Amino acid sequence: METVKTQKISLTTEHIFWLEYIEHAKLELKSMQERLIEHLPTFSNKMLARVEQFQNRFIRQKEVTDILRHNIKAHENDIERMTRLSLDYLQLRVANDHTVLKNEYNRYVELFVELVQDFNEFLA
Q1: The domain containing residue 11 runs over which residues?
Q2: What is the rounded CA–CA span in Å between residue 15 and residue 64?
Q3: Structural domains in the chain (count)
Q4: Which of 28, 80, 98, 102 is 20 to 30 A from 86, comparing alpha carbons?
């Protein structure tokens, strides 16, 4: 039983960190959208295609953010169920799901950092 509680604390701590980063990313995304609008009058017609690309990337990033946040919250429910029921097969499933979710999160961070870098280079 103690390992289930330890596993819950470990997974929950990681979720808290992920959700804090996601909140930061949401604020950063909003800021980038505002900066794009502010700079809109300074862009030439040739640059408007790139502006549209960024607008589309911002929309997609928000969608991915919402999906990832939902998946993390759903996984928290699974962890709670695992702790309450203490079933071996459920522990294994939660651990496997966590690994998949961790990979999703890491990929999310990579793509978000890439978006921020591309956007900053575009505005420079």
Answers
A1: 2-123
A2: 16
A3: 1
A4: 102
Residue of 49, 42, 57, 41 whose CA lies nearest to 117: 57
Q: Are 6 and 82 in contact (CB under 8 A)?
A: no
Q: For residue 22, what are its two tokens?
A: 């996601």
Polymer length in residues for the chain: 124
- DSSP-H helix ranges across the chain: 2-39, 48-85, 88-123
A 10 A CB-CB count for 44 gives 6
Whether the predicted pLDDT of 53 surpasses 70: yes
* 52, two tokens: 């549209």
* C-alpha R_g of the chain: 19
Q: What is the pLDDT of residues 73-88, one digit of tens each?
A: 998 887 777 777 766 6
Sorted by sequence, the CB contacts under 8 Å of residue 71 that are 6+ apart come out as: 101, 104
Q: What is the pTM of this model?
A: 0.81
Whose structure tokens read 């039983």? Answer: 1
How far is CA 124 from each of CA 50, 77, 120, rounded to the nearest angstrom? 14, 44, 6
